[in-house]
Amino acid sequence: MGFKVAIAGATGNVGREMLNILAERRFPADEVIPLASSRSIGQEVSYGDRTLKCRHLDTYDFSDTDICLMSAGGSVSKEWSPKIGALGCVVIDNSSAWRYDADVPLVVPEVNAHALAGFTKRNIIANPNCSTAQLVVALKPLHDVAKVKRVVVSTYQSVSGAGKDAMDELFAQTRAVFVSDQVENKKFPKRIAFNLIPQIDVFMEDGYTKEEWKMMAETKKILDPKIKLVATCVRVPVFISHSESVNVEFEKPITPDEARDILRDAPGCLVIDKHEPGGYITPHEAAGEDATYISRIREDATVENGLAFWCVSDNLRKGAALNAVQIAEALIAQKLIKPRAKAA
């Protein structure tokens, strides 16, 4: 008997990717139900070789549904996730709504799958921020060997992290530049085409943005509360995949060669690191792939026991949809959930 799975926010970038990944990975679902807001009722989405029509989140009965992959935004999740969880359906939430709740596990399966056992307090599990997810996948195997003390990370984040409207804006602005039309800013505070914007999310009182704070808080919760992290998050004119330049200070000595060997054996990591032109991964190449790619591993001689590396991952997949499906798979593998009722 398979599981009954609902996708809330099924018409968005991440929701559609969730449907694709469920089909690709042959998730043991007897029934998959796409859910959306009232303006998208009846809209069709693809699930493998099938076409499904969206139902209304507000009127859907979760009482016989096993898993809800929630990708409808923070305010919707705040309202609906506790209600859905109270009906016995496990919510795997992609927003930031529950990440910092002490009673909600924040999980990247390759890093802290053991934390899943705590989901029963609220029946909610949180997906981390996309930039955090790929970072901790790369840091975890190194932390296990040499213990991470401090991380300095600069991100180069694609517009898909801000949604479909952001992708449309990059396309429209790029076209406008080429045909000498007026460039309009709607989603971003400044022009994104052929430009960089050193702001993701709102500014906080200390001058950091909320995105930068998320990386710090989530790395501590997922990996180790003793890790010190500082981030500068930048939006770049790339459609899909986030890139990160990472400098790490360890407690114990670790060489670049040792790090390469460790990361080559680590789950979710792929090392592409040749000291030659093109011997590294770019966001274009990572798009559509599941792995977190690591390149340019080298010594950081400015600190004791320091390394620097380049990290790239598809933010719609590992940064969001794939991680959510992997959480569901881990729940099943650990026998933490089982189907409640046979789907009709």
Number of domains: 2
The run of helices and strands is EHEEEEEHEHEHEHHEEHEHEEH
Helical content stands at: 25-40%
The CATH architecture of the largest domain can be named as 2-Layer Sandwich
Uncertain spans: none
Going by CATH, what is the homologous superfamily of the largest domain?
Answer: Dihydrodipicolinate Reductase, domain 2
Total strands: the figure is: 14
Number of helices: 9
By helix and strand content, what is the structural category? alpha/beta
Largest sheet: 6 strands, parallel
Intertermini distance: 11 Å
Oligomer, anyone?
single chain
Report the average pLDDT across residues. Answer: 95
Topology diagram in text:
Elements: E1 3-8, H1 13-24, E2 29-36, E3 44-47, E4 50-53, E5 55-56, E6 67-70, H2 74-86, E7 90-93, H3 109-112, E8 124-126, H4 130-146, E9 148-157, H5 164-179, H6 210-222, E10 228-235, E11 242-250, H7 256-264, E12 269-271, H8 283-286, E13 292-299, E14 306-313, H9 317-333
Parallel strand pairs: 1-2, 1-6, 2-5, 6-7, 7-8, 9-10, 12-13
Antiparallel strand pairs: 3-4, 9-11, 11-14, 13-14
Helix pairs in contact: 1-9, 4-6, 4-9
